[in-house]
Amino acid sequence: MTPRSVRDRSTPAAGAPWVRTRLRTAPGTSWALGLLVLLTSFLAAVFPRAVEHYENEGLRHDIAAADPRHSVLELNSPQPELQLPPAEREAAVREAALASVHRKVRSALPAEVLPGSADSAYGFRTGKPIPAADGWLPRPDRVDPQLSYSTLSALPDHATLRAGKWPAVRGEVSENTSEVEGAVTEETAKVLRAEPGAVISVPTQSGKVLTVRITGIVAPERPGSAYWSTQPLLRTPALVPEPNLYPPRYHWTAAVLLPPDAAPALLATTGEPEMFWRFAPDPSGLTSSDSAGLRASIASLEGGPGLVRMRAVAGSNATFATDLDKILTGYDTLRTAIGPVVTVAAVGIGTVAAVVLLMTVGLIGGRRRAELALLRARGGSLRGIGGRLFAEAVVIAVPAAALGLLIAVPFFDGARLWPSVIGPAAVAALVCVALPLGAVLPHRRPQLPGARDDLMDARPSRRRTVAELTALVLAVGAVGGLRRRGTSGEGGNDLLVSAAPVLVGLIAALVLVRLLPLPLRLASRAVARRRGAVGFLSLARAGRSSAGGALPLLALLLALTTAAFGGSVLAGVADARDRAALHTVGADARISGVLDSVPLPDRLIREVRAADGVREVAAVQVVYGVPLPADPAGNSRMKNAAVLGVDPAAYARLARSTGLGPFPADRLRTAGSTTAKDGVLPVIASPSVAAELGDRPRELSTAAGDIRVRVAGVVPRTVAVPDSDFLIVDAASLPRKQTTTLLVTGGSPDAKALRAAARHAGEGLSVRLRSEEREAFVDTPMQQGAWGIYAAAIVAGAGYALLAVLLSLLRTAPERVALLARLRTMGLTSRQGRRLLGLEALPQALPAAVGGVLVGWATIVLLAPGVDLVGLALSAGPGPAVLDTAPLRADPWSLTLPALGVVVLTAAVAAVQARWAGRRGPNTELRAGDPR
Fold this sequence. Notes:
Elements: H1 18-25, H2 27-65, H3 68-71, E1 73-78, H4 86-92, H5 95-108, E2 121-126, E3 130-131, E4 146-151, H6 155-158, E5 159-164, E6 179-185, H7 186-192, E7 199-203, E8 209-220, H8 226-229, E9 238-241, E10 250-258, E11 273-279, H9 291-303, H10 305-314, E12 319-321, H11 324-367, H12 369-377, H13 382-408, H14 418-440, H15 462-485, H16 495-498, H17 500-515, H18 517-528, H19 534-543, H20 550-585, E13 589-592, H21 602-610, E14 616-627, E15 640-646, H22 648-658, H23 674-677, E16 680-685, H24 687-693, E17 698-702, E18 705-714, E19 726-730, E20 741-745, H25 751-761, E21 766-769, H26 770-775, H27 781-811, H28 813-825, H29 830-863, H30 870-874, H31 892-919, H32 922-925
Parallel strand pairs: 4-10, 6-8, 15-19, 16-18
Antiparallel strand pairs: 1-11, 1-12, 2-11, 3-4, 5-8, 7-8, 9-10, 13-20, 13-21, 14-15, 14-20, 16-19, 17-18
């Protein structure tokens, strides 16, 4: 034996590294898997960042957009105690003392909403207005105007001098000073007819007069800022009625601004002066997680340890007031309403993505089944093979997931990082575990060559039956929990409840897999009697598909259900806003005066009927505040209702077209009826009014005359007064008839023409359009974020559905190509080959599409009682919400379009595959010993 033949056992055997070899052998598969992992990781990482971003922006928007009177933090303290020496009292209200307290209080406020210094202010003001008896002041109803006097810090920084000069202090002002200088804003000067040099006499407690000389007219630089809007009277005067007077008498109330060190002069006035410190919150650094802590801090400042600290600085009688906690409560309410609905979409799309990933790794494992069987036959252990496959998956999945996370981080800057790491880590872990397990587990036992797991002959095992029953129980529990508790979040954000659509889709997929062999057998028997071979071969091939086809079907059903649910949510939001606008206006347009009490001339009615886009005009006489008769039982409670005089035919058509309280017009007609002969008018009433009136004639005293009525019908609401109790009566039967409201219907009434007609008819008439009310529902950042997530869920669901179709077709592509090549050698034409592949794919695509439509519809019907879209649709509307509920409804387009897309894509892929296979010769596809 030569030295060359002796193996040197100290030298390791040369061999190529497994992972590098495999990646080089199938680079396309590796890149495809990595790209899918990258995309899924990106979506998983960007979702929590998007949710956190729109929640943070929603909180900041709610505080920044709120009226400063509600958002500002204000600390008030009464004037210094009277028993103190005058010098101490005067020093306590001067600029230096107030500024010192302002700095100390600001440092003690909650860190979550550290006030900014730009719009914060402090000063000394009269707590109640003081009547001004100067003759040059305006008196609309011969009532003296009432003026407030206030010092305001940093006035030159927030206003521009328009006339005169800035007010200043001449010497040291004390409680006994007889004259100080002041300034007023342009609006106040215009109303009070004040000019530089004007003098206002202010009565004092001693009987003397404090003279305030106006030296300057100023204009606020930012009138809407918290500096000016926290107390609007500082910039804008108001005309207010005298209390407890009828008819009312009005007087002007306004404010005069004094220099900061002139505050001691106000101690002598009768206006109950007080010190104040206002802090405008800065929400730019707030996050949604700060909401609970901020509410607790505000509660402490209003009546807890925080208030004790404030009083130690500002005085023992200081009070702290703000409505910021109410803003936070409204924000939490909206967040609680939107959060579970968004979670439903997240769980759905996440499950679809997981199923598609499992399909991908299953396709990779299936393509390598022969390779792994050979390794197993040559002595490879399951642990060793699995470890090598795990290493392959790690090399592909971990860098791809990390790259997806890095790409997602720049999106929605400011969000926390750690919630974004969880999703990509889960995606990488799923791929790294599923690839080796899915590929190795089928090789636990030896498999016969050519053995098939046909769908037609498969018999579910007991373990599968138990798993399916478990999933059914979970689905029933989730649906029941969602219908009972809803998405209001009262019971917390339960993941099982949020997974209800997913569980419903899972049960549907399992049921379809069990039922699919039955129609295939019946169709195969029917086609077998026909002469053509294409139909029989396609059904036979569909029946020979793998019994493990539940995964592609599950992916399709979940994707279609998620798309249908998301589209239905968006359609439900739009429908709720349309209905809210209709309830607010009552028709496509509404023309009326103040409180629907101004009579409308006949000329206006004719001009409105002649306007473009107007189909019909319903003239209504609205009489509010009609007292109902006393309770027959003798109870003394009083109840009012609105009486509506209408044309029965026109108003009934309007109610029927809008769906708001439709009723037959004959119910209101009095001609020839028994009640007309008795002088009793039939009326349509709201439920509460009908309960008050009973079923016998009752007398009513209204501004339209005294009438006797009997309830002839009940409707829950009506278009003219959708939020009030009402009685609808034939206007022709009223003693004093007049039109006070016009309800206009039409496709798109000409707004300019309607407003021009109302303007020509007289002053005080308003025109409200349903389209304008609909546009007033502007999305807040939180609503925009939820809307965007649902739109992204629909797109992502459609994308994953298409990917599931491609993966399911690619899984059996080699077998179909080989079959087509064999049949071509037997005389099959290219046209027949395309028909064969198309018909073979349809038995699975059609049940998936039809099942997706049915499951999506069933899911929405089952879950609709528990999903309320009021918070998502109407929280940003004008005024209070006019709908009590906004239920989920099925959207036909969201149900049918994705399902049609699945069928069309399946047919297109089959056609492309047939055309591609037709260009390749049989010698290329058929090889000796090929088991396909």
